[in-house]
Amino acid sequence: MIALAGISFAESSFFPIPPDVLQIALSVSKPNKSYLFAAISVIASVLGAVVGWAIGWWLWQSVDTFFYRVIPGFTLESFNKVESLYQENAFQCLIVSAFTPIPFKIFTIAAGVCSVPLPTLIIASSIGRGGRFFLVATVMRIFGKQARDILDKYLERITIVFGILVLAGVYAVKFLSAH
Questions:
Q1: What is the number of structural domains in the chain?
Q2: d(Cα 71, Cα 108) in Å, to the nearest integer?
Q3: Which tens digit of pLDDT belongs to each residue from 138-166?
Q4: What DSSP string runs through 17-46?
């Protein structure tokens, strides 16, 4: 379980390997603990997301002028425009990226760079990562070893479809509350 927590934490901030593989293997060996493994993954992943946010916030503070000087077309104005767009949609972006196979660390670090409020990161990460890891736990709990083969083959597609459904739900709620 310590390895699962470590990988979940690291994957949200700097490590390239997602924790799902270990979560699935642990759940196959102990299906009754599938939800415990999911909870460990969520908590560690959200803590890792906070570290990713901190990396983006602190690192950007020390390298931003380098980008403005060296990269053609990269101006403070263009960055501010992108930052504004990301901040306006950060909650949705973070939920979807937390759920899909897109490397989550990209979005946690970007959230720090773009000064997304930390509570937004924590709440969106909790929802997205919770959805992802508890979906895996539920499938493993219901189908056991048979599910491992299905998840090994289709996990990316399943998470993309579910991520799209979550995003559609968020937009539907946002649209209905505006009207």
A1: 1
A2: 23
A3: 988 888 777 777 777 777 777 777 777 77
A4: S-THHHHHHHHHH-GGGHHHHHHHHHHHHH
